[in-house]
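okkk here we go again. third time trying to get the adenosine-5'-triphosphate bound version out, last two times i messed up the smiles copy paste (missing a bracket lol). double checked this time i swear
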Amino acid sequence: MILDELNSEQLEVVQSNRNLLLTACPGSGKTRVIINKIAHELSLMKSESKRKILTLTFTNRASDEITRRLNRLGVLTSEVWSGTIHSFCMEWIIKPYAGYLDELRNGFTIVDEKYISSRITELKEEHNIGFFDNVNMKIERNGEYSCTNVSYIPFLDNYYNGLKESKMIDFELLLHYSNKLLARYPKISNSLAKIFKYILVDEFQDTQDIQYSIISHIIKNSDDNSNVIFVGDIDQAIYTSLGGVAMNFEELKVEIDDSNMESKTLTGNYRSAQRIIDFYSHFQSNELQIQSEANIPDESTLISLNRNISKEQIPNEIARLIQFNLNNGIPESEICVLVPQWWLITSITRRLRQLLPEVNFDASGITPMSQIRENFWYKVGRLFLTEPLPKMYSARYKWAEEIIELFKLQTNRDMLDTPKPEKILLRIINSINPNKTEGIEYLAECFDELLSELNIDLSFFPDLVSSKEIYFETIETRLQDETYDVPTDTESFKKFYRENSGIVINTCVGVKGEEFETVISYGLLYGYVPHWNEIYNGNPDSASKKLLYVICSRAKRNLHLIAETGRQTRRGVELGINRHLGEVEFDYDDI
Ligand SMILES: Nc1ncnc2c1ncn2[C@@H]1O[C@H](COP(=O)(O)OP(=O)(O)OP(=O)(O)O)[C@@H](O)[C@H]1O
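finally!!
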């Protein structure tokens, strides 16, 4: 039985049937609780019940991980919907209820990040705002801008009015319209509550104010039929300068209007050796003593800090550390290289691939595919790019289900007129494998063959034509952009979807909630960690400690930290080591 693998504190949370806040330290089993809560609730549901469990995660990667872990437990994931709050809003609020809002009634397009960034750059120039000036683009729950600097308001008006005129929505408008729909029509919340028995919010400490509002509309209008569990750790709140708010227990009770809400915590850390925990407790903001339950002897750990190498030596040094760990028997998928800023992922990955040609790397933080997962063709493309392995069956079946639903929504007709259309769709997709070595050509031919097998003439469905154009345009723009430098061949496209395909290269935000035997983290410099945005607009001391806390607490056994020399500000001033890291007195290992 699944629940046997929980300790008594974890079991209490899983068996509770109240609204609940779970805050606990890294490695204490919060994700394990979420997985088991889903499995437990599904086991209690009657098979004829049409209800589902909703899990809101911080990243798509975290959501995929939940699906994978449920699959591994043998839990059927068709009754679970997991994704980011943006995907949830799109799928469950905007798509079905767009007709209720004047702004969306006559159609809309989701704009992608590339469009947003070039539009923002253009408008900043027009409004004499510096390229690097950070403007808060968020919209509050009452529809007002979060930005308090009045000189930026004309710029924001220009940006948002432009989107509205062209019937486009970005991520902020997506939340804004969703919140507006729920506020105006409580019946929508009530229907959602009828579908979702539980809402599990992972990493709640990084939730935006308007996102709390969306969740609370659903819970408050649920006639006590739905519950919410907020799961997180305030010490890991690394999104504050970008709008994350870690509400406390009292605030949450008010937010969802439930004075009986429970608050629980978990003790113990099942992930890391005590020596690793003692090291990162330097960056902890509460007094809590974290006890390791991981059975990893301190003698087997290695913690190093290198502050003497130059930035030019970084690839060689990281390659040396990787080789050292591989020689010590650490598997590739248990090693993670954390980059200080996402745009560095591509260049370091390329250099490491050259230096260690035999080693596999998983740099899926940057994919050529559109990040707009709600795009119909993104979903179809994902099926063509993943292998039909037995362990992937349940996930792929669910994707097929989504494609069929979306097709119906956008065309008003069934994709396949047969019982179990998902099975048939998968069978057709699995049988198509054009002999094209270039990724774009491969996908284009897959789509053509699929449409012909299904007897679908796309010219009758303008929405699908335009979403196809957006999908391919995004890929092409990414492939042409030197910052990304992503490979163009079919095999590499497929690799982006392969699980555990090697050493993970990502940012600290990208691997939230994950764990590795060895973590190698470089660029630990003031200006990178924390980023300049935090320094100018946030609380740099708190951001600095929290980032270090999250980085170091990913490691089970080995932690290799690097604060290289030679990196400069735009004005040519040398960046120094992150102050909180520099101040730690610790008996580091030499490697
Ligand atoms: N009761 C338990 N017995 C054995 N191992 C456990 C138990 N609970 C959790 N673990 C293991 O401890 C590790 C950390 O758990 P998990 O990832 O759920 O922690 P977390 O609290 O979500 O951490 P973070 O805050 O860093 O995301 C995982 O490998 C998990 O399988």
